[in-house]
UniProtKB/TrEMBL annotation:
Residues 1-25 form the signal peptide. InterPro entries: CBM6, Galactose-bd-like_sf, GH. It comes from Kutzneria chonburiensis. SUPFAM superfamilies: (Trans)glycosidases, Galactose-binding domain-like. Gene3D superfamilies: Galactose-binding domain-like, Glycosidases. The keyword Coiled coil does not apply. It comes from the Bacteria. The keyword Cell cycle does not apply. Residues 69-91 are annotated as: Disordered. This is Carbohydrate-binding protein. Keywords: Signal. Residues 429-561 form the CBM6 domain.
Length: 561
């Protein structure tokens, strides 16, 4: 199935399904274990296919709070006319906006063609187009957030075998052509419309034999397939291992069907399963209008009901913690714990009736619990704020509380915030590096690091395809100067430097004196002048408009006071 075509009849079916009474059973419990972190918060599923359009659509103010992760956008010179709309969303043209909000981009190469399914012309035509796209990217010296080339989209349904020959051979030929000019940018694929073990095995065997294994593995989870995510990822990992292929990041670059993508409860189910499965990134599927993050924003700057789900996701910090649903369908959710603020966030849904959330691993004798919800408003109805259902104090017994949630609506999403009853800071002050947007560096773990994680191997400079930097999206209450403390490690034995810039402004230099070794942390301070609301702070070894840092340093956190 294509993820691009929706006629009037299908649209009516989608709306009817959205409004139909849920068929979910009631009386279930979602288990949350605050004491079982399993990965840093990285907002893996806050992405979208054709999420952005030229001329800053939608507004930055709608993107910063949801902590955009990875986007899939058309290539330079886009010809694709999704659902009959004019070509738009050129990856290089929208790159500055993606960069402003801390998002990386994967460029979908076959969208150079105007039609979907793609109409093959000839190999000379395709390879010429590949050359043109690569040349445009190489000439874009100020663009540093392109994460990969996506070679093809849904080849199991869109590749013209009769005219172009076998797809696997075509994959190899295309990758080899890219590599004659661009040996740096990762390649992503194969981009199947669904998980297909037999097809994937054949593809990987050929790719391994020809030295063209994707750097990033891609397939879609669309037609009500959230319940299959765990099994699909496990099947891929088993296949990968059996073929002797080193572990690759998994990118689910289209998720949620037409009657799911605008339903917060259903989307919650997908996100929970992506987080537990450990995928690298996941993008909301495109069905309607581009430049709206696929229905999260209406009128360019107003949130829909589903946007609030992603806002709650964006507010998460620290570590993702284990959630256990009663089954692979129905009630599910994802949760985080920020050890600095002693704050637990739980987002859940996809169930009706009276259900409960049981949270284990809490400290203290009492906690404040806030419960709110957001509805399935559709993609054209703005929702100015979520609805607060309850705000109360719970007694913690044996590290546990159980929160009953009456009258749940399966299409709605729900948010629990659990925090101390006193001493809560007025705003988030500490931002962990491992929670930030990390470009060409590596998230690492250490018991001596704040929250147990940090970012190292921030090593590259001098090439916008490979520059290493970390972008922190921060939210402050007032416009003024803030003292910024940086937790870092420097095992070189000499002073190291990185570039510092915020909100796209001028660069300055931060110096890091030597520490006791790599993963041995100290602090340094500087001053940043921020405006009230969201700001993006970049610390870079290399970045456009910055000549490059000296030596090497690892980043643990920043703290704004």
């Amino acid at each position: 199935m294509s993820s691009r075509r929706l006629g009037i009849a299908a649209a009516v079916i989608a709306v009817t399904t959205l409004l139909a009474p849920p068929a979910q059973a009631a009386g279930h419990t979602l288990l949350v274990d605050v004491g079982s972190p399993f990965r840093p918060v990285t907002h893996v599923a806050s992405g979208g296919l054709y999420a952005l359009a030229e001329n800053s659509r939608p507004a930055d103010s709608t993107l910063l709070p949801i902590k955009m992760n990875t986007l899939t956008q058309p290539p330079p010179g886009v010809g694709q006319r999704p659902n009959g709309q004019p070509p738009g969303g050129d990856g290089l043209l929208v790159a500055p906006q993606a960069d402003r909000v801390g998002a990386g981009e994967v460029i979908r190469m076959p969208d150079i063609y105007p039609d979907f399914p793609y109409k093959w012309v000839s190999w000379d035509d395709w390879l010429s187009k590949v050359d043109t796209m690569v040349s445009a990217r190489l000439a874009a010296g100020s663009v540093s957030n392109v994460a990969a080339w996506e070679i093809w989209n849904e080849p199991d349904g869109t590749w013209n075998t009769a005219a172009a020959g076998d797809f696997n051979a075509g994959w190899t030929r295309t990758v080899q052509r890219i590599r004659t000019r661009d040996t740096v940018t990762p390649v992503a694929g194969p981009g199947y419309s669904h998980w297909d073990a037999a097809r994937m095995r054949t593809f990987l065997v050929n790719a391994k034999n020809t030295g063209t294994v994707p750097d990033i593995m891609v397939w879609h989870e669309l037609d009500h397939s959230s319940g299959s995510v765990a099994a699909d990822v496990a099947a891929y990992r088993s296949l990968e291992s059996s073929l002797g292929i080193s572990p690759r990041p998994i990118f689910i670059n289209e998720y949620a069907w037409t009657d799911e993508v605008d339903v917060p409860g259903r989307v919650t189910d997908y996100i929970a399963k992506f987080e537990r499965a450990g995928v690298w990134a996941a993008d909301r599927a495109f069905w309607y209008e581009y430049g709206t993050v696929n229905g999260l924003v209406v009128n360019n700057n107003q949130p829909t009901g589903t946007w609030w789900l992603y806002k709650w996701y964006g507010d998460m910090a620290g570590s993702m913690v284990t959630t256990t649903p009663p089954a692979q369908t129905g009630l599910d959710g994802f949760a985080s714990y920020d050890s600095t603020r002693r704050r637990t966030d739980v987002v859940f849904g996809d169930e009706s009736g009276t259900n409960s959330v049981r949270v284990n691993g809490l400290s203290g004798s009492q906690v404040r619990v806030t419960l709110e919800s957001t509805p399935a408003s559709g993609r054209f109805t703005a929702v100015t704020a979520p609805m607060v259902i309850a705000d109360s104090t719970y007694t913690v017994a044996n590290g546990q509380i159980t929160v009953a949630v009456p009258n749940m609506v399966a299409g709605s999403a729900y948010h629990l915030v659990i925090q101390p009853t006193a001493g809560v800071p007025a705003y988030q002050q500490r931002y962990e590096a491992e929670n930030a947007s990390v470009f060409r560096a590596q998230r690492l773990s250490s018991s001596t690091a704040s929250n147990g994680g940090y970012v190292g191997r921030i090593d590259n400079t001098g090439d916008p395809r490979a520059d290493s930097y970390v972008d922190f999206v921060v939210n402050v209450p007032n416009t003024r100067a803030y003292t910024m403390t940086i937790g870092y490690a420097n095992g070189t034995g000499a002073v190291a430097t990185q570039g510092l810039a915020y909100n796209g402004g001028a660069w300055s230099t931060v110096s890091y004196p030597p520490t006791a070794g790599w993963g041995k942390f100290a602090t340094t301070t500087t001053t940043v002048s921020l405006h009230a609301g969201y700001n993006v702070i970049r610390l870079a070894k290399g970045s456009p408009y910055f000549a490059g840092g000296t030596g090497y340093a690892e980043l643990d956190y920043i703290q704004l006071n």
